[in-house]
TrEMBL record:
Protein name: Uncharacterized protein
Originating organism: Microvirga subterranea
Taxonomy, superkingdom: Bacteria
Length: 85
């Protein structure tokens, strides 16, 4: 009974840390003058599409675990992409 909640808490904590890595990378690029308008626009549009994806997941009977997994997948992709820049 408690194991699924512990897994969700763990995944949510990892999501928070991974998200901070993306925020740090983007803000560092902007502060150093290497930020682009396209990246800035991407920051905003990603939030809207992630919310829509999460809402659709919940509306179709998905779980909080599935929503967090989806967010983590997107965040990890951003970390990999931003490290290459």
């Amino acid at each position: 009974m408690i194991l699924p909640w512990m897994k969700l808490a763990s995944d949510t904590s990892l999501l928070a840390m991974e998200s901070q890595a993306v925020i740090w990378a983007r803000m560092t690029q902007i502060a150093m003058g290497r930020g682009t308008p396209a990246e800035t626009m991407l920051m905003v549009t990603e939030k809207v599409s992630a919310f829509a994806e999460a809402a659709a997941t919940i509306a179709t009977g998905g779980s909080a675990h599935k929503v967090v997994r989806g967010y983590r997948r997107h965040v990890r992709a951003n970390v990999r992409r931003l490290k290459r820049k």
